[in-house]
Design a protein that fits this description.
Layout (H helix, E strand, L loop, with lengths): L15 E9 L4 E7 L9 E4 L4 E11 L13 E8 L2 H6 L2
Parallel strand pairs: 1-5
Antiparallel strand pairs: 1-2, 3-4, 4-5
């Protein structure tokens, strides 16, 4: 919870970085970082190369960080696209 100098609850102002994380929750791994904020609809196809396979968007998340302070660094906020990537892509790229 964030509080102001008087101890009252306050909502922090967080900056949204111009990046989007593509993340496969099934295997708990990052697929890619995209320069820019991208929010495709759930069910959209995502085409991958090497090997050429098709994954699917399963969810969209807004990952809230925290503002920097005297005792801690800023944790940036980002958009995250959750995807399901075929196992063969992970086997080829690990």
């Amino acid at each position: 919870m964030f509080v102001d100098k008087t101890g009252a609850h306050t909502a922090p102002t967080l900056s949204l970085k111009r990046k989007t994380l593509v993340f496969d929750q099934r295997v708990n791994k990052q697929v890619a970082w995209l320069d820019g904020v991208v929010v495709p609809p759930i069910g959209s196809k995502i085409e991958l190369a090497e090997p050429n396979v098709t994954g699917f968007v399963t969810g969209i998340r807004l990952m809230l960080g925290q503002p920097g302070g005297d005792t801690h660094s800023e944790i940036p906020s980002n958009v995250c696209i959750d995807v399901e990537i075929p196992e063969e892509w992970w086997k080829h790229n690990s």
